[in-house]
Amino acid sequence: MQKLIKKLVLWWWRLLALVALGLLVLLATNAWFVAKTADRAMHPDQGCSDAYEVALVFGTSQYLRSGRSNPHYYGRINLAAQLYHKGKVQHLLLSGDNRTQYYNEPGRMQQDLLERGVPEEAMTLDHAGFSTFDSLKRSRNVFELNRLLLITQDYHLPRALFIADSLQLDTQGCAARGPEWSGMRRLWVREVAARLRTLGDLYIWHREPRILGDPEPISL
Questions:
Q1: Which residue among 24, 134, 136, 177 is least enclosed by CB atoms within 10 Å?
Q2: 142: left (phi over 0), alpha (psi -120 to 50) or beta
Q3: Which is nearest to 176 in space by CA: 29, 74, 94?
Q4: Closest Cα to residue 95, out of 124, 61, 52?
Q5: Spatial separation of the C-alpha atoms in residues 205 and 199, rounded to whole Å
């Protein structure tokens, strides 16, 4: 019995050590992403540089699973329209998921931006932006862009800017409004884990977009 207890205690300590190591790696990765990109993650009241002609707007669902309006979605399109009307950007690349005919993030964004006074010719739709990585790599390889203003929430910007750096894109981030902290706690945990997974995507298994396709350069 004593041997069994000793083995259980040993395994328990090993498990705790693995958990502690995992948490340490997660925290270190998170700190690295934030430190590497903090100087380029801006808020609208900080100016969001007007040196970028094209803004990449990351897609998301218009509605939450509960059926309520998604504050992430409306924060992004409202900011995109605001920056366009202020002359901060000339063109919007709307990149999102359109894997079925019934779910079309770029199309929905375009319709709502038209209602906000953004002309159709000032928008390009990317229907194969299935992930942050896909959207950024397609912006470079398909739409032949090298300088981009990234529009998304502040928690997402460090990962987006980090990926852009790895693709040698010249980017700055502009933080859109989102939900209050009470609605963000679970999302923050997911985002920290996603940052760790991004390192694997970039440096271990060298991920490629699900769909790349032929070049479709944006003419300004």
A1: 24
A2: alpha
A3: 74
A4: 124
A5: 9
Please name which of 55, 109, 115, 65 lies closest in space to residue 87, comparing C-alpha atoms. 55
**Residue 15 located in a structural domain:** no
Flag whether 133 is in a domain.
yes
76 in helix, strand or coil? Answer: helix
**Tally of domains in the chain:** 1
Judged on CB neighbours under 10 Å (0-12, 13-18, 19+), 203 is: exposed
Whether 209 is in a domain gets the answer no
Residues lower than pLDDT 70 in the chain = 1-10, 15-17, 19-20, 22, 181-184
Residues facing 92 on adjacent strands: 55, 123
> Which domain CATH number covers 133?
3.40.50.620
* Tens-digit pLDDT profile for residues 59-90: 999 998 888 899 999 999 999 999 999 999 99
pLDDT reported for residue 162: 96
Position 87 scores a pLDDT of: 93
Q: Are 60 and 73 in contact (CB under 8 A)?
A: yes
Residue 116 lies in a domain: yes
> Which pair of structure tokens corresponds to residue 200?
């694997």
Looking at residue 70, its pLDDT comes to 93
The tokens describing 165, both together, are: 């750096």
